[in-house]
Design goal:
Layout lengths: L5 H11 L7 H15 L4 H4 L7 E2 L4 E4 L2 E4 L3 H12 L2 E4 L3 E4 L11 H4 L7 H19 L3 E2 L19 E2 L1
Antiparallel strand pairs: 1-2, 2-3, 4-5, 6-7
Length: about 160
């Protein structure tokens, strides 16, 4: 099954919700990453998204001259929730505070000392967590490849096809 429709993305995220336990903020961030990739946002543009790049009325995100259509209102809800988060849970350190800034995905306070933006590793880890949680919950794998998808609204750049085996 290809994850190329908002209902399928919703189903995956609903299925894994309980796997996050008390890590509510991490679930919000990971879900938002998953939705944005489903909207076609390239991994290398994820850290570049500024709050001012989001046009709620047109349901567009414009990053580095590329427009990405927001495919579901759930994305806007998650953006609102994520903007209110002041920390994200870390497996190693517990709550890690986020730096203030203009980017949607604010780096942690420690990371902000070295770089303004979140690294792509944050987004790769989010997708990996979703895949692992989905496997834990269902016994089915979400596999990802590095090719691009030609269908609109499907994961692109990092994720060609997400097949649930």
């Amino acid at each position: 099954m290809r994850v190329d429709h908002p209902d399928i993305i919703k189903d995956v995220l609903t299925t894994i919700r309980s796997e996050y336990g008390f890590n509510h903020n991490r679930y919000i961030r990971d879900s938002l990453v998953f939705w944005l990739m489903g909207s076609g946002v390239h991994l290398y543009n994820m850290s570049e998204i500024k709050n001012s790049d989001i046009d709620r009325e047109k349901k567009l995100i414009t990053v580095n001259g590329t427009e990405y259509q927001i495919i579901d209102d759930e994305v806007l809800r998650l953006i609102d929730e994520w903007s209110k988060c002041v920390y994200v849970e870390s497996e190693r350190f517990g709550p890690v505070y986020l730096a203030d800034g203009e980017y949607l995905f604010r780096p942690t306070v420690v990371d902000a000392l070295f770089e303004e933006k979140s690294s792509s590793g944050v987004f790769i880890a989010a997708i990996r967590r979703i895949s692992e949680h989905y496997f834990d919950a269902t016994g089915k794998r979400i596999t990802m490849t590095s090719m691009g998808v030609t269908m609109p609204g499907v994961f692109s750049d990092v994720v060609e096809i997400i097949e649930i085996e």
